[in-house]
Amino acid sequence: MNINNFKEISLNGRVSYSISCFENTLRFLNYNVNEWRIVLEHLWEFTSIKYLDDWSGMVAEIIPENLLEFK
Description:
Layout: H1 11-28, H2 37-44, H3 52-60, H4 64-67
């Protein structure tokens, strides 16, 4: 995909595309997508959240550094 293809796409559209790529990568690597459902649901909330800082705080809790602290 060419970076110029994203010039006319909204931030929501770009994030949606990124999350879709992540989901497809999980499938390609033969991961069970259902095991990632909580993370994916948090990521998809971006497209309907009113305030970006609320979403970023929530997502900060699920970044790998924080997730890997717990089993």
